[in-house]
Amino acid sequence: MTRLGSHRWGRSMGAKVVVLGGGIAGIQAALDLGDMGFEVHLVERTPSIGGHMAQLDKTFPTNDCSMCILSPKMIMCADHQNIILHTYSELERVEGEFPNFKVTIREKARYVDVSRCTGCGDCVAKCPVKVPSEFEEGLIERKAIYMPFPQSVPRKVTIDATKCRMITQKKCGVCKKVCKAGAIDYDQKDRSIVIDASAIVVSTGFAVMDVSVLPQFGYGICKDVVTSIQFERILCASGPTGGHLRRPSDGAEPKSLAFIQCVGSRDARTHAYCSSVCCMYATKESILAGEHCPGIKSTIFYMDMRAVGKGFQEFVQRAQRSYGVRYINSRPAKIQPGEDGKGALVSYERRGAGGEPVTEPFDMVVLCPALEPKSNAQLAVLLGIEMDADGFFRSPDPAHPADSTRKGIFACGFSNAPMDIPDTVTQASSAAARVAELIFGGGY
């Protein structure tokens, strides 16, 4: 449980709201509720709030810096006197009914005293154990004691108990030796906290589909086939290559890129729904690639171009006109390693007269995977709310999409339906407003 200061907002009115998920949806809902005077408990399963938005380089269609938008909100959240952060924590159970929920959360042991840790990084520098970094999507390694990313909130380190030699083998202990603050505690235990809450907001976001289950797309087979979130990290100045566009096989700058849309989406065998953001972020990433490497040739293979938001169609036209991005209306049938295991060969059918098969070489291929509702099945059971056929939380009233099927429990963002960041923020504020309407007596 972390409080990192106070701010200008007034005192809590006493009513408590639990927000599950610390991505941009949870952050926005928590800020709105905190500003209204609720005592907000923001629960995030990872060591830092921020969610997937923290991994992005830019946001479409304006190409604004993602972290420049997100980081101030993260700091406001931590600094808000009505918001309590429970990072590295998970929901255990929910009892009772509105307005008297008893919410039990488990704060997992960090093996670090957060009241002492200064975030100096000395322990990280000296730790000898390296494991794949989740934040960097496995492109580089992190240490067994780590901070997920430089702008993490709270700015505290966490020990990965499954990888730390001191915890698994009782050998090492170097992090404790170098910690001048005395923050390392190998004996720390998980603890459960019970919160008497009037309402619950679910904002658990999405998970990226494991595309290795679709071997025809070459992921895990071709070294230069990456997912879109991995490509985003490669483009990012704080990413594994320092913002230099390099392909994984040999570190060379690619001269041609292929983006494959709907990998696992709009397919009855995997996910029948459209993930809603892939057309636009592929366009964004192709533009960014052109800015990083002038003259690079980008091709986007798509089923249907769904540029439905404000400025979206103009964004696509800009990609075509200013960066020479080629859009091909076809879903590739197979992707194979290129010559000497570098690059990739993309086989697809050219639509139109004859429908002739084509195999075209690319230096690098970017897959745009289906985005799945994260942990909704498990949460639906714990919360006693219903899901739809695609695994998103179901609302009984289309006029109020943030409402769940249980009074006093609301859902917003990607846990409800595929949507982009502006729509997510809008629905998060809607969920906060519905909480206030219900508790202040408006009802529904």
Task: Give the topology, please.
Elements: E1 16-20, H1 24-36, E2 39-44, E3 58-59, E4 64-65, H2 66-79, E5 83-87, E6 89-95, E7 101-107, H3 122-126, E8 130-132, E9 141-143, E10 145-146, E11 158-159, H4 165-169, H5 174-178, E12 191-197, E13 199-202, E14 206-208, E15 225-227, H6 228-235, E16 256-263, H7 278-292, E17 297-302, H8 312-323, E18 326-329, E19 334-337, E20 344-349, E21 357-362, E22 364-369, E23 371-373, H9 376-383, E24 409-411, H10 421-439
Parallel strand pairs: 1-2, 1-13, 2-5, 13-24, 15-22, 16-17, 16-22, 17-18
Antiparallel strand pairs: 3-4, 6-7, 7-12, 8-9, 10-11, 14-23, 19-20, 20-21
Helix pairs in contact: 1-2, 1-10, 6-7, 7-8
- The CATH architecture of the largest domain comes to 3-Layer(bba) Sandwich
Largest sheet: 5 strands, parallel
Q: How would you describe the shape?
A: globular
The tally of domains stands at: 3
On the 0-100 scale, what is the average pLDDT?
95
Distance between the termini: 33 Å
Briefly, what CATH class of the largest domain?
Alpha Beta
Radius of gyration: 23 Å
Q: Treating each run of at least 4 consecutive H or I residues as one helix, how many helices? A: 10
Spatial order of the strands forming the largest sheet: 5-2-1-13-24
Q: Care to count the β-strands?
A: 24
Q: CATH superfamily of the largest domain, called what?
A: FAD/NAD(P)-binding domain
CATH overall fold name of the largest domain: FAD/NAD(P)-binding domain
Uncertain stretches: 2-10
Instruction: Give me the secondary-structure category.
Output: alpha/beta
**Range of strand content:** 15-25%
User: Helical percent range?
Assistant: 10-25%
